Known about the structure:
Arc Repressor Mutant, subunit A, five-stranded mixed β-sheet, alpha/beta, elongated
Amino acid sequence: MSSHGQLVGYARTSTTDQKAGLEAQLRNLEAAGCTKVFHEELSAIATKRPELGRAMEYLREGDRLIVTKPDRLARSTADLLQIATTLDTKGVTLRILSMNVDTATPTGKLMLTMLGGIAEFERDLMLERQREGIAKAKAQGKYKGRAPTARAKADDVIRLKAEGLTGDAIAVELGIGRASVFRILREAK
């Protein structure tokens, strides 16, 4: 542990968590030696974490961010890795008490790298299952894909152009993108 850096804690509870959940996190962060703690109470669907943002801005090179559990810091493994990478570029290490992970150590860095590999593997599996599902649905004639909204309006685009409307006006009139309008007009020539 570097002696010059500050130990900064971050705690988060969802609005459904009991107050005791936050108090336990704060106790554990204090016991771990945190001199400054950022904490917030957010619903599970909240996308913005203002206190996490403040903590990230506050942290300086040589500091260590400490959290009790990975799910208190991040919403997903990918999110955790993104945060760890950001911390790393700032020269800040991350310690997750429940997992005994500390990126100040080679083992901690390795564990985080392995988590990254597992997350990527899970994503690849998910995409593969998705492709297989689409292929199966297509074979059964159940998969139609997204409706080609702009192409379905090609006749309207050509008619409005003939009536003297500009490409931009046609896009607004039909509720489709400019690029689609100009593509249809190019293909019509």
